C-alpha cells in the first residue's frame, strides 16, 4: 500500500525508470544464480572424474 502512495507522488518518467531499473536488477540476479549453478555442475563433473 505504501508503494502505491509513493507512486502517486512520482511522475511517469520516474515510474518508468524505476520499473526499468527493477528489471535490470532481476536480470543481474538471474545471471548470478545461473553462474553459480553452472559452476556447481562443472565442479560435480570434475569431482566425478577425479575420484
Helix/strand layout:
Layout: H1 2-9, H2 12-50
Explain this structure.
The protein is mainly α and 51 residues long. The chain is 92% helix and 0% strand. The protein has two helices and no strands. It has helices spanning 2-9, 12-50. The radius of gyration is 20 Å and the shape is rod-shaped. The chain starts with a helix and ends with a helix.
The poorly predicted ranges are none
Strand content: under 5%
Helix share, percent: over 70%
Mean pLDDT: 88
Shape: rod-shaped
The CA-CA distance between the termini, in Å, is 55 Å
The secondary-structure element order is HH
| Structural Rg | 20 Å
Task: Report the structural category.
Answer: mainly alpha
Number of DSSP strands?
0
Q: Number of helical segments?
A: 2
**Major sheet characteristics:** none
Name some characteristics of this structure.
mainly alpha; rod-shaped; single chain
Q: Brief overview, please?
A:
This protein is mostly helical. The protein has helices at 2-9, 12-50.
Amino acid at each position: 500500500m505504501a508503494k502505491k502512495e509513493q507512486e502517486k507522488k512520482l511522475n511517469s518518467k520516474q515510474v518508468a525508470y524505476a520499473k526499468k531499473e527493477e528489471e535490470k536488477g532481476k536480470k543481474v540476479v538471474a545471471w548470478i544464480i545461473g553462474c553459480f549453478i553452472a559452476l556447481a555442475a562443472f565442479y560435480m563433473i570434475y569431482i566425478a572424474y577425479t575420484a
